[in-house]
Amino acid sequence: MRRIYTPIAAALLGVVAGCTPSASTPSPSSSAAVSAGPSSADPVDTSFELTESALLTAEDVGDGYTATYDLQGDDHGSLLMLMSYCGETDYTEAGQHVVEFRKGSVFRDDQHFVLTMVVRYDGSWAGQHLDDLRAALPRCARVPIMGDLDDVATLTVVDNDFAGDGSLLVREDGGAGTQYHGVVWRGDVEALLRIHTSSSESEARDLVVAAAERLCTATASC
């Protein structure tokens, strides 16, 4: 399985799949190293494929939702884009170790949706990316959206390591209300979620747990 440098390398610098499909062309990307990181010498397990089964389904989210897969485009409300807005574009070099990715949306309407991206890395970079993100988040407690100091989002880590091999749940509060961001990894794969469903903290946590279970179709780690 070949390593690919796609918009997902950029995604780890702030771009993730959007809820509305749009054209996107893969292109090389790179980022500055924050830490030495893990070795990428370990071979990728090619016995597992990254299919739609690794993504959340409508049944995972709730009644009235519909799933769409293989979306392309930018999501300016993602956690990774928020990291970019707060100046942390170089918090990780995990984007240079992406092997493949899948993305999708489970939606009811413009105000109720969950965006999911699942990424496979080489070596131990799935876990390293979560570590790098967790270390950078305290520097992004207040994020000016698109640099606008009158439009500031507050990010609060509300839970850690409750699913998969490692996980994170972040609450975002701002002018548009509250949404949650979840990250979970198993083995060499990671799921990143933007939960914009008017969910409670416990409901958002349950969706991250469901995403961790979905990852079992893509890795031998379970």
Q: Could you characterize what this model shows?
A:
Helix content is about 20%, strand content about 30%. A hairpin with a 2-residue loop joins β2 (about 100-110) and β3 (about 110-120). The protein has an eight-stranded antiparallel beta sheet with strand order 1-2-3-8-7-6-5-4, sandwiched between helices. By secondary structure, it is an alpha+beta fold. It has a single domain, classed as Protein Transport Mog1p, Chain A (3-Layer(aba) Sandwich), CATH 3.40.1000. The chain has five helices and eight strands. It is globular, with a radius of gyration of 16 Å.
Architecture blueprint of SSEs:
Elements: H1 7-11, H2 58-61, E1 66-69, H3 79-85, E2 98-109, E3 112-121, H4 125-136, E4 142-144, E5 152-160, E6 166-174, E7 177-186, E8 189-196, H5 201-214
Antiparallel strand pairs: 1-2, 2-3, 3-8, 4-5, 5-6, 6-7, 7-8
Key terms for this structure?
eight-stranded antiparallel sheet; Protein Transport Mog1p, Chain A; globular; 222 residues; disordered N terminus; single chain; alpha+beta
Summarize the structure.
This protein is an alpha+beta fold and 222 residues long. It is built from five helices and eight strands, in the order H-H-E-H-E-E-H-E-E-E-E-E-H.
> What's the β-strand tally?
8
What distance separates the N and C termini? 21 Å
Tell me the strand order in the biggest sheet: 1-2-3-8-7-6-5-4
Number of domains: 1
Largest β sheet strand count, sense and barrel closure: 8 strands, antiparallel
Question: What is the N-to-C order of secondary-structure elements (H for helix, E for strand)?
Answer: HHEHEEHEEEEEH
**How large a portion of the residues is in β-strands, by DSSP E?**
25-35%
CATH architecture: 3-Layer(aba) Sandwich
Helix content range: 10-25%
Global mean pLDDT: 84
Per the CATH scheme, the topology name is: Protein Transport Mog1p, Chain A
Shape call:
globular
